[in-house]
Design a protein that fits this description.
Layout lengths: L15 H15 L5 E6 L4 H9 L3 E6 L10 E7 H6 L4
Antiparallel strand pairs: 1-3, 2-3
Length: about 90
């Protein structure tokens, strides 16, 4: 199961994506009962990679998106429910 983010350039760098991702991942694990969460991130999108790291995700390597986006280069980042609960908090 995937949690992603995207912001208008005027809203970037203000902590909105971090706050929203934390709330969404908490909801996914605590309410929806997900056991794992991933984020698919373009290998050149350093700000999203840094956000994934702040969320405690690890880079699991290249992956493919479903059609019609299967040619887009992406890496899967993610963590398990246990890793999420054990992560250091900001």
């Amino acid at each position: 199961d995937e949690v992603g983010w995207g912001l208008h350039p005027d809203a970037q760098g203000k902590g909105y994506a971090l706050e929203a991702a934390i709330a969404t991942i908490d909801y996914a694990f605590d309410v929806l009962g997900w056991q794992d969460v991933i984020h698919t991130i373009d290998p050149d999108n350093v700000p999203s990679q840094r956000l994934a790291e702040r969320l405690g995700a690890r880079n699991m390597g290249p992956t493919r998106l479903p059609p019609p986006f299967e040619e887009a280069p992406v890496e899967a980042w993610g963590q398990s429910r246990a890793e999420w609960k054990a992560r250091p908090r900001d």
